[in-house]
From TrEMBL:
Cellular compartments annotated: Secreted, Extracellular space, Extracellular matrix
A Pfam short name: V-set
Residue ranges constituting the Link domain according to the UniProt record: 147-242, 247-338
Protein name: Hyaluronan and proteoglycan link protein 3
PANTHER family attached to this UniProt entry: AGGRECAN/VERSICAN PROTEOGLYCAN, HYALURONAN AND PROTEOGLYCAN LINK PROTEIN 3
Keywords: Disulfide bond, Extracellular matrix, Hyaluronic acid, Immunoglobulin domain, Repeat, Secreted
Family membership noted in the UniProt record: Belongs to the HAPLN family.
Length: 338
């Protein structure tokens, strides 16, 4: 018999009874928020009741459902193996090889420690404890602290098929945003009336102020969802997700303004490189970068980050202001990354 009990709404506790003993598996945190590049611990413990006098051959298996498969294909999605352990032996798989270990801070502590977190490590992790034919599991959601930004091509709006959108986000130091990430961004006020690809292959856009042309005035605020689109044929913008890792984004102190070629060179001469769009957004959102000077970025766009809105620095909300993609001979400042 498997009993699922959610004790006090926070603790996840799962139990199986067999042969007069109970195997209990719990995780005190159903979801964990982490930072890109850091280490994170996904908690999972098991114990037997009554306590055992002799050790049993208990196995532990950690599997993973990537965030981009959760929203749409959950029923069909396959969990992939992260780590399998029995006794002191363990084995890790795929992109987790060499990056994961079990914490083992006490008997029954099977918490998973993942290091060097990448943008695409988000999703639902399952800790499954197996004793012979019996098994009990808990799940832990892993989310990353980061920022969602809408992105369109230099060639214009609605230019990317799904794969082009994937590449565009990667080029800007990001990854296609998941549904959850876009939802969080919407809750924090993102309003954007152009549809973009998400990691799950759907096309959506976030509206906080309903209006004509953006789903209509009578539709409640929310994510406007076009559903799954044809990944090769259909063309939209992209919603990318990024998070800062090591390094700094800064506005280059330079006498006078620069065209695009000069801007790239000036960053290189300063020991860095011209910043990518995802890096600027992450510096704005996560490090509070605020600068009322328009600057070139690596993709040929010109933008500036405002955390404290003020006169002559764009609209009254915080945000990264964009001048689009000006002609490359035009003169602006530049944002570099080091
Ligand atoms: C996740 O991102 C890393 C770094 O960008 C990449 O090397 C890896 O292949 C990606 N993994 C998956 C499953 O897409
Ligand atoms: C930028 O200015 C340099 C001269 O400083 C010039 O050689 C170059 O062609 C210009 N680049 C563009 C894209 O206008």
């Amino acid at each position: 018999i498997v009993l699922n009990s959610h004790v006090s709404g926070v603790m996840n506790l799962f139990v199986v009874y067999f042969n007069g003993i109970r195997l209990l598996v719990d995780s005190p945190q159903p979801s964990v928020l982490a930072t890109r590049g850091s280490s994170v611990t996904l908690p999972c413990h098991y114990r037997y009741e009554p306590e055992l006098s002799a050790p049993r051959r208990t196995r532990v298996k950690w599997t993973w459902l990537p965030a981009n498969t959760i929203a749409t294909n959950e029923a069909f999605a396959e969990e992939t193996k992260v780590m399998v352990a029995m006794g002191n032996r363990h084995r890790s798989y795929g992109s987790f090889k060499g990056r994961v270990r079990l914490r083992r801070s006490a008997p029954g502590d099977m918490s998973l420690v993942i290091s060097e977190l990448q943008l695409n490590d988000t999703g639902r992790y399952r800790c499954e404890v197996i004793d012979g034919l019996e098994d009990v599991s808990v799940t832990v959601e892993l989310e990353l602290r980061g920022v969602v930004f809408p992105y369109y091509a230099q060639k214009g709006r609605y230019h990317f098929n799904f794969f082009g959108a994937q590449q565009a986000c990667l080029d800007q130091d990001g990854t296609l945003a998941t549904f959850e990430q876009l939802l969080t961004a919407w809750e924090e006020g993102l309003d954007w009336c152009n549809a973009g690809w998400l990691a799950d292959g759907t096309v959506q856009y976030p509206i906080t102020v309903p209006r004509h042309g953006c789903g209509g005035e009578n539709l409640a605020p929310g994510l406007r969802n076009y559903g799954q689109k044809q990944r090769l044929l259909h063309r939209y913008d992209a919603f990318c997700f990024s998070a800062s890792i090591k390094g700094t984004v800064y506005y280059l102190n330079y006498p006078g303004k620069l065209n695009f070629t000069e801007a790239s060179r000036a960053c290189a001469r300063d020991g860095g490189q011209i910043a990518r769009v995802g890096q600027l957004f992450a510096a704005w959102k996560l490090k509070g970068l605020d600068r009322c000077d328009a600057g070139w970025l690596a993709d040929g766009s010109v933008r500036y980050p405002i955390t404290n809105p003020r006169a002559n620095c764009g609209p009254p909300q915080p945000g990264v202001r964009s001048f689009g993609f000006p002609a490359p001979h035009m003169k602006f400042g530049v944002y570099c990354y080091q």
